[in-house]
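Forum: Protein Structure Q&A
Topic: Joint prediction for protein chains with partners

I've read a bunch of threads here and the consensus seems to be that you should model interacting components together rather than docking separate models afterwards. I'd like to see that in practice. Below is the full input, 356 residues plus whatever partners are listed. Could one of the regulars post the assembled result?
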Amino acid sequence: MRAVWIIASFLTVVIAIASCQTAEDIEFKRYYTAGLVEYQNHCQNCHGDKGQGLAALIPPLTDTAYISRNKNMLACLLSKGIKGKITVAGKEFDSEMPPAELAPMEIAQVLTYVGNSFGNKVGLISNDDVTRDLKNCR
Amino acid sequence: MRKPIILFAVGLTMFMAACGDNKSNRLPILGHRDAETKTVDGKEVTDTVYQTIPPFKFVNQYGDSITDNNLKGKIYVADFFFTSCPSICPTMHRNMLNVYNAYKADDNFKILSYSIDPKYDSVPVLKKYADKLGISGQSWWLLQSGKDETYKLATSYLTSVAEDASVPGGHVHDGWFILIDKQKHIRGTYDGTVTTEVTKLIADIKTLQAEPEQRVAQ
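Posted by a regular:
Agreed with the consensus. Here's the joint model:
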């Protein structure tokens, strides 16, 4: 009888830990799937379905070093737009990206998508992260 | 007892072959068509007259004047865009690059991208866009002219083929790629924002080139 209790409580703990991870997973997935739709509606025209960009007109989103280095800047880049010279994937771009008309939550979702697609792997970028980052825009 | 089955199979095969043959590798001719009746040798004959692209005069990214005469003996694909377009144009030209790369070595094939914002898209602006797009040589011309002329010409390429080619507000905004043959007939319209349609266009150009009327230089 005791053995059954021990096994049962052990199982409970395992399940608790597992479901804890799943909750995080679910949150990530929720951001990511919403972000995919945002991406298709607001970014894909320019950056392409594979984040490939367009020749020397529009930079790709596949420069994983650029994305992870600028992880905390991306929200500002989206909300203010980008103008002038930037170097991405070893190439110089001198075009203009118009400001994205997105709420902080939507920015978080689309960045979670971009940040974990096309070879990038920066993990969840949450609504709180974006709200904080937006306060530090230059 | 087996005979009916064999007969059926043979019949079906013939039917399918005939069907395939009917479609023989020809593209349809699109646009308005008029019946023109004339008298030949005392007999009335009716000819179908298909819509053609009217004469035009534009300037390309090199500052050269380009008219319909420059397209004599050429098969070409046309689209309408503008360099500062934030919506569908990047997708269209990402796809058009596939067409360009497939046929850029072919002297008798061209791509014409007409700017619908000629005021902003001056010759230097078009040249810079071409350079950044990575295109060179004479296979892909970016063209500009007066706005009215451009809009009128757009109608010849579009209204007959795209039902919603009415132009709301400032700019023509549909992403059609229009395939034109050596007789200036419209032979296909493809949604330039959809990769599979553009893949079909690339295949259709080959089909069109194989038609007897297209093999002779005009």
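The mean pLDDT of chain A is 92.
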